[in-house]
């Protein structure tokens, strides 16, 4: 498993955040996590269990003690009657997907990156698009954590249900997750339909597309009218009956075009920003339609080798298309040169207090720049539009929000703070990011 810690310095995947921990441990079991928490609490310092660093914020940055999760991985239990699977919290999502495939099981939904640990992905509100539940946290049935006093807390519908309710998206502020139990379903096959569309056609038909498909994802190429629309339909095919793309087609689309060629174009755009609109138009014209079917996680997840920085906001579903149009107006009126597509997704409402989809259907807008590009003018220019629309920022992606202006966006914000006070009264899990978004 890759790690953002190189032996001296912690650095996240995008390279935007870094820290130098004073002490590093690699706990092999829950007892070792308990010992670490007791020690830092006694010393009056702090501790963070890092994931793979795929958050673009410093949510996982250690200030004193860093715990690495590499020894706390793997599936612990499978309950086919309850249709749940329990895994250690340090397990990468991609490894859980493979383990579930071998068991003939699957998560209901997920995002397009699977490098994150289960703890990191759920704690930051990582999500996919569409479905009955888009967020990973909304698929949790139980969890176990070590709280700020060194106590093991198990939470499920039967035991500490109030902890489960809040801690599913816990931001790493409530405890160190040691295991997670997901609701799963039988392994299923998804048919993918990818097709280029024009801007107006895509927006005009968006509601119909979402109604007709289980999962819809769109990408708009700034400075153009080009869109790529991806519709994923659940099928009645049995595993083994799917028709995945050929190795050559998969290599061409997913490796050559989406990574190698796209990376080269991003580097060219970084060196010659004036070329970006022309590059985007060429990229839009190069898009081609394709259909294939495969196991769910193979369709949902894509390889992302081009490093980037990202800001993502969830706005209310009913105003989403208007907000997208306003974001385009701001981009078109600016002198920015945006080489990365804007990603557009939807999610059904859930009941997780700090989920960006808590209590409302959501429309997600994600903005990216290459990892070596200054993002501040672009993200800073759009963030007021998203905030004015009632937007909630993804906890693991770049934003400038603080506790004072986040609290009104979440009607359960005070409940979360009360749970934090209960589970981490001495703030042993705090860092600068958490002080900013939750208060001290």
Structure description:
With 440 residues, this protein is α+β, with helices and mostly antiparallel strands. Helix content is 32%, strand content 24%. The protein has 13 helices and 20 strands. It has helices spanning 30-43, 93-103, 118-123, 161-167, 199-212, 247-271, 276-286, 296-300, 320-332, 376-388, 403-406, 413-423, 432-438, and strands spanning 10-11, 18-19, 23-25, 47-49, 65-67, 75-79, 84-88, 105-106, 140-146, 152-156, 176-183, 185-186, 189-198, 215-220, 226-234, 290-295, 308-316, 342-347, 362-370, 392-393. Strands 16-13-15-14-18-19-17-20 form an 8-stranded antiparallel sheet, with helices on both faces. Strand 14 and strand 15 form a beta hairpin.
Brief characterization of the structure:
With 440 residues, the chain is α+β, with helices and mostly antiparallel strands.
Ends: how far apart? 33 Å
- Class from secondary-structure proportions: alpha+beta
- Average pLDDT confidence is 95
Spatial shape: globular
Total DSSP E strands: 20
Low-confidence stretches: none
Main sheet overview: 8 strands, antiparallel
- Give helix % range: 25-40%
Q: Taking strands numbered 1, 2, ... along the chain, how are they ordered across the largest sheet?
A: 16-13-15-14-18-19-17-20
Radius of gyration: 21 Å
Individual helix count: 13
Q: What is the strand content?
A: 15-25%
């Amino acid at each position: 498993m890759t790690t953002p810690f190189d032996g001296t310095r912690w650095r996240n995947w995008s390279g935007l955040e870094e820290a130098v921990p004073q002490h590093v441990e690699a706990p092999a079991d829950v007892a070792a996590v308990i010992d670490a928490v007791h020690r830092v609490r006694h010393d009056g310092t702090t501790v963070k269990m890092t994931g793979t660093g795929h958050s673009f914020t410093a949510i996982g940055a250690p200030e004193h003690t860093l715990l690495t999760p590499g020894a706390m991985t793997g599936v612990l239990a499978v309950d086919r009657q309850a249709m749940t699977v329990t895994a250690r919290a340090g397990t990468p999502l991609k490894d859980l997907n493979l383990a579930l495939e071998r068991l003939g099981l699957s998560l209901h939904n997920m995002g397009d990156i699977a490098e994150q640990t289960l703890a990191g992905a759920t704690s930051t509100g990582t999500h996919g698009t569409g479905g009955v539940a888009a967020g990973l946290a909304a698929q949790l049935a139980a969890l176990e954590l070590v709280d700020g006093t060194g106590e093991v807390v198990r939470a499920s519908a039967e035991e500490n249900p109030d902890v489960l309710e809040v801690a599913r998206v816990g931001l790493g502020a409530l405890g160190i997750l040691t295991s997670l139990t997901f609701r799963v379903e039988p392994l299923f096959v998804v048919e993918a339909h990818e097709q280029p569309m024009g801007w107006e056609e895509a927006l005009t038909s968006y509601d119909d597309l979402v109604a007709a498909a289980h999962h819809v994802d769109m990408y708009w190429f700034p400075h153009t009218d080009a869109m790529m629309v991806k519709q994923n339909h659940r099928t009645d095919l049995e595993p083994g009956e799917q028709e995945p793309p050929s190795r050559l087609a998969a290599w061409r689309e997913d490796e050559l075009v989406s990574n190698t060629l796209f990376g080269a174009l991003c580097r060219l755009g970084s060196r010659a920003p004036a070329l970006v609109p022309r590059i985007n138009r060429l990229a839009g014209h190069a898009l081609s339609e394709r259909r294939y079917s495969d196991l769910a996680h193979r369709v949902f997840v894509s390889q992302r080798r081009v490093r980037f920085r990202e800001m993502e906001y969830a706005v209310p579903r009913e105003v989403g298309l208007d907000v997208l149009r306003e974001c385009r107006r701001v981009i078109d009126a600016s002198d920015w040169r945006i080489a990365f597509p804007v990603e557009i997704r939807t999610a059904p409402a859930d009941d997780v207090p700090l989920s960006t989809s808590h209590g409302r259907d959501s429309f997600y807008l994600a903005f990216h720049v290459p990892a070596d590009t200054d993002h501040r003018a672009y993200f800073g220019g759009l963030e007021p539009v998203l905030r004015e629309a009632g937007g909630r920022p993804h906890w693991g992606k770049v934003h400038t929000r603080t506790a004072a202006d986040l609290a009104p966006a979440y009607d359960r914000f005070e409940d979360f703070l009360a749970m934090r006070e209960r589970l981490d009264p001495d703030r042993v899990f705090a860092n600068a990011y958490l002080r900013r978004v939750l208060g001290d």
